[in-house]
Amino acid sequence: MRHRRKGRVLGRSPSHQRALLRNLASALFLTERDAEHDENAPKVKGRIITTLPKAKELRPVVEKCITIAVRGLRAEEEALQFGSDAQRDSEEWKRWRQGPQWQKWAAARAPAVTARRRVLTMLGDKQAVRVLFEQVAPRFLDRNGGYTRILKLATPRLGDAGARAMIEFVGVRDRATQRAQAPKFESAAEGQ
To answer: What domains, with CATH codes, occur in the chain?
Structure first.
């Protein structure tokens, strides 16, 4: 019985599953980086194609990483009010460092540092963490979840005919919903 055993096995051991999800999540975040001169540049930023079960398992991992990053960015913004604009190792900076403002700054900055460390343990890739905090998370500061979408692809995977899906970030290629306009008909008298 599978009592309280959530998730898909994906035909792998638990350590292999974690490694697979880490690599897929890192790959999704790394598609956002500027890789124009890279030989393996992504065709579309913020989108990867994988199998449907893998995409469904990947989604909670990516959403959790983005949520942690958004909270970390909010903590960084709060810490800015206690920061100093003085040049490092100047007299003004040394006074600020010894004063109570520095302690407030350090206390306000601690959640931001913790957020980066937590995401790094989840992803295992420093470059992916950097891309997440600098490019992806700022787009979702005003959003409370639902950062990704999964779209099923019509054509199965070659070889084993596995169902394929595309997982991408929301907000970049959203369709604009417009209300259809009622058709205008000419009257019979105007047409003659």
So the answer is: 15-171 (3.90.1030.10)
